[in-house]
């Protein structure tokens, strides 16, 4: 997710201080892939496959860092899902504060419309800063992440149909959207229930967006690069 619509409701409008931490260890963050097997890393902002069309500043490697208690909770979700034949597809985890600023700069550049058809076909880009992109993000606090769910059979894992892709700026992406199929609603519920069982709260405007509650460092954001 990029910092989603209605930022106050998402908890993104609170004042935070930037930590002096320069590494994950300094911030008590860990790479979640080291805690449980089978995570599928699809870290979009470390590639050009995202709404900006370019590698996002601050993303130097496709890794998922989270504060230690958050990462441990996510590992428990992963282990429970693997026992049921599923696995987690990780899109974004900790996000440096300066990466968020690059999203805002992109939103201000109305001449760049290359991603419109895929990510915001029904929303004018000039309106993205009215709610879809916020100036601060819960991701920078190390307790928020974006993810999907894959079903695995005989070693082959395929994404479940959630009704929209990741980072789709559209009412169809609202978790409880009535305009998706029953099967898509069921798939969203699978993810919602699995994450909720370990303390992750969904942001209702984005089916992929979850925050661990209570946040370990709600007043602190981080800005070291993902590498």
Automatic annotation (TrEMBL):
The record marks 95 as: Transition state stabilizer. Belongs to the peptidase M15D family. The lineage of its organism: Bacteria, Pseudomonadati, Pseudomonadota, Gammaproteobacteria, Lysobacterales. Its EC number is 3.4.13.22. Its cofactor is Zn(2+). This is D-alanyl-D-alanine dipeptidase. It comes from the Bacteria. Binds 1 zinc ion per subunit. GO terms for molecular function: D-Ala-D-Ala dipeptidase activity; metallopeptidase activity; zinc ion binding. Zn(2+) binds at residues 139, 146, 209.
């Amino acid at each position: 997710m990029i910092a989603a619509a209605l930022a106050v409701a998402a908890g993104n409008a609170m004042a935070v201080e930037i930590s002096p931490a320069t590494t994950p260890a300094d911030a008590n963050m860990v790479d979640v892939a080291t805690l449980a097997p089978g995570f599928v890393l699809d870290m979009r902002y470390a590639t050009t496959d995202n709404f900006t069309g370019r590698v996002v500043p601050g993303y130097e490697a496709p890794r998922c860092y989270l504060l230690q208690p958050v990462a441990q909770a996510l590992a428990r979700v992963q282990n429970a899902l693997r026992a049921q034949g599923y696995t987690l597809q990780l899109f974004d985890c900790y996000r440096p504060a300066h990466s968020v600023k690059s999203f805002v700069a992109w939103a201000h550049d109305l001449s760049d419309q290359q991603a419109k058809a895929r990510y915001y076909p029904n929303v004018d880009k000039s309106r993205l800063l009215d709610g879809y992109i916020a100036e601060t993000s819960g991701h920078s606090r190390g307790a928020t992440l974006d993810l999907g769910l894959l079903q695995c059979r005989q070693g082959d894992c395929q994404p479940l149909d959630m009704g929209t892709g990741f980072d789709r700026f559209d009412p169809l992406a609202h978790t409880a959207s009535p305009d998706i199929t029953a099967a898509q609603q069921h798939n969203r519920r699978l993810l919602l229930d699995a994450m909720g069982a370990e303390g992750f709260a969904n942001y209702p405007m984005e089916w992929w967006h979850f925050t661990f509650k209570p946040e370990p460092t709600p007043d602190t954001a981080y800005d070291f690069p993902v590498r």
